[in-house]
Design a protein that fits this description.
mainly beta; lipopolysaccharide transport protein A fold; 2 helices; rod-shaped
């Protein structure tokens, strides 16, 4: 029993010390009691030094204060400064603090300073237990690199994170961010953006609905409906990376690069864009599409590179090039397109060094039912009308046209020149060591015989996409042989290679025989966390502040119209109670405090004079 009594005494004493430890300490040069105006409170004011409060790690200085000792609550007026440790300083014209709940409210030119940022607003709530600050009447955060503004904001001190909602604007000397919701980490300057967001600068505009941006390193990563607009190019894709200092952007999966001046589009599943170099590199099912006379030309290859200013664009394609147009298609190992001059080169290259198999293949062009091959093929278009003007085949030129019934009409030589009218082949000239095999028919399309001829040069004229006649120009050596007398093994010229099964008949044939690309999994950006309500539901007997607070109970409740919520729920609105009215109330109360202080000064001065008068008597 003895030990039990001792334990109760010790426990009671400890409880008393604990309760005492939670009481607010203060220092003031003047104390005034006016029960009529401030029942249960003492009015504090400074003369040479400001009024000082201290409570569990937070210090407060002010010119005047009303302190409700029993309620452990005070209201501070004039040059208010709150200090929590060496990391948080807050200044304002007015503040309230409840020592029991450790909840504070400040208004009137509020400025909260952290090592990396400063926050300025009209009114601010500060919960020391949660270590969170909150405003809903518009605020400005100044970072080492940027200025951030929003209607609603919440600061999480443990994470050093700001969450901004509604009309969020980040202003940097190089760019401006406009967002619906943005989380900002002040230690490293990282920003996470949610909802429709734009990043605008002199050289580019970025749009996304979910993204990340390093405001100090000027790099970003964007997902969900993302695009980057340069002066004459638009980059879109599932995932975009952006580096402002290098004028560089890259995209992954479902990429589209639009040339807004040249009516062209490049697609693929990985791309790199260098703005200053006017270059685009794209791969993984890469396709370049250019509109010509209401008919698009599609070029596909393993890799595409587009370089040069808009007026002098160059397209290069490497490996397994496939080209398709409604009236023409082709294949080659590489391609070169000069959009200014209208020249397209289909070129032979050798990759045998990379594999054990010689993959060198002649370029091939199909125009209607005519196939043309050679070491190199040039297509020349009129840059103004964009219509095909001519083609040239250099070295080992070989033209094949499948006969309407059987066999193949064949023409070979060193070089071939084809001429076009309205994108339709009407004349072909072949020079140097030419050979032909031609199935000759009468007007009823009956086979007369097979003509095999050697000559120095040949001219072929076409009508209705068929060979109309062949003109053998010089040194002609050939005969027309009846079909039964023409040996089967002599009906194919040396170098014959019919590739009609490779001909492209539609845009889909660009990828014929190729497996779908394996898309890289996108590292997404998770949705913002929905924090607990800033204002806890308090009992009427235990408010966050105090019954003597300037705020009403309904002001200390979270509601959809003025709290951080999912993007879809946030509305553009101000605080529940107009801040101007609160400031007017504070001014009126401060005026009363100053009048009370003036009366006290008058009384003290009178007492002093009375004492001096008694001493002289």
């Amino acid at each position: 029993m003895k030990y039990l009594v001792i334990f109760i005494i010790i426990f009671t004493a400890s409880l008393g010390f604990a309760q005492e430890g939670r009481l607010i300490d203060y220092e003031s040069e003047r104390q005034i009691i006016n029960e009529q105006r401030y029942p249960g409170a003492v009015v504090l004011s400074g003369i040479n030094e400001q009024v000082y409060f201290n409570h569990e790690g937070i210090e407060v200085w002010c010119n005047n204060a009303v302190f409700y000792r029993d309620a452990n609550f005070f209201k501070a007026y004039g040059n208010v400064r709150m200090q929590q440790g060496d990391t948080v300083t807050m200044t304002s014209n007015y503040a309230e603090y409840n020592g029991t709940t450790q909840f504070a409210f400040a208004s009137g030119r509020v400025k909260m300073t952290r090592p990396q940022t400063t926050l300025e607003t009209d009114s601010l709530f500060f919960d020391r237990v949660k270590q969170q600050a909150y405003y809903r009447s518009g605020g400005t955060v100044r970072d080492t690199a940027s200025v951030l503004t929003s209607i609603v904001g919440r600061y999480f001190m443990e994470d050093d994170k700001y969450s901004f909602v509604s009309n969020v604007v980040v202003t940097n000397p190089e760019y401006v961010i406009n967002s619906q919701q943005l989380d900002f980490y002040s230690e490293n300057g990282h920003a996470y953006m949610y909802g429709p967001t734009t990043i605008t600068s002199e050289t580019s505009t970025v749009y996304c609905e979910r993204g990340f941006y390093d405001t100090r390193g000027d790099t970003g990563y964007f997902v969900k409906n993302s695009r980057i607009d340069y002066e004459n190019r638009i980059l879109e894709g599932d995932s975009l990376y952006f580096d402002r200092s290098r004028s560089f952007a890259s995209g992954t999966n479902n990429i589209r690069v639009t040339d807004t001046l040249n009516n062209s589009l490049v697609t693929g599943h990985y791309a790199e864009v260098f703005r200053d170099r006017d270059s685009v590199f794209i791969t993984k099912r890469a396709v370049a599409a250019t509109l010509q006379e209401q008919d698009s030309v599609f070029i596909h290859s393993d890799t595409l590179m587009i370089t040069g200013k808009p007026e002098n664009r160059i397209i290069r394609g490497f490996y397994d090039v496939r080209m398709y147009k409604s009236d023409m298609s082709g294949k080659s190992d590489s391609i070169f397109v000069d959009q200014q001059s209208g020249l397209t080169k289909l070129i032979n290259i050798t990759r045998g060094a990379l594999t054990s198999v010689d993959v060198r293949r002649n370029p091939v062009i199909w125009s209607d039912n005519n196939q043309m091959t050679g070491d190199t093929i040039h297509l020349i278009s009129n840059p103004k009308t964009e219509k095909l003007d001519s083609l040239k085949v250099f070295d080992n030129a070989f033209m094949i046209q499948k006969d309407t019934i059987e066999g193949y009409n064949q023409i070979k030589g060193k070089e071939l020149t084809g001429l076009f009218v309205d994108n339709e082949l009407y004349q072909v000239d072949v020079i140097k060591n030419t050979e032909t095999i031609y199935y000759t028919r009468n007007s009823e399309n009956e086979l007369i015989g097979i003509n095999k001829t050697l000559s120095s040069a040949i001219r072929i004229m076409f009508e209705n996409k068929e060979i109309d006649y062949i003109d053998y120009i010089t040194q002609v050596d050939g005969t027309l042989t009846p079909e039964p007398d023409f040996p089967e093994n002599a009906r194919i010229l040396r170098g014959f290679n019919w590739r009609g099964d490779e001909q492209l008949h539609s845009k889909e044939d660009l990828f014929a025989g190729k497996p779908p690309p394996q898309l890289v999994p996108i590292r997404g950006i998770p949705l913002p966390e929905i924090p607990d309500d800033f204002f806890d539901e308090e009992d009427e007997d235990s408010p966050l502040l105090n019954e003597n607070s300037r705020l009403k109970p309904q002001d200390l409740r979270d509601k959809k119209i003025d709290t951080i919520a999912p993007v879809e729920q946030v509305q553009d609105t101000l605080a529940l109670r107009p801040v101007q009215n609160m400031l007017e109330d504070e001014k009126e109360e401060l005026k009363e405090l100053l009048e009370l202080e003036e009366k006290e000064e008058t009384r003290e001065q009178q007492e002093k004079e009375d004492k001096e008068g008694e001493g002289s008597n």
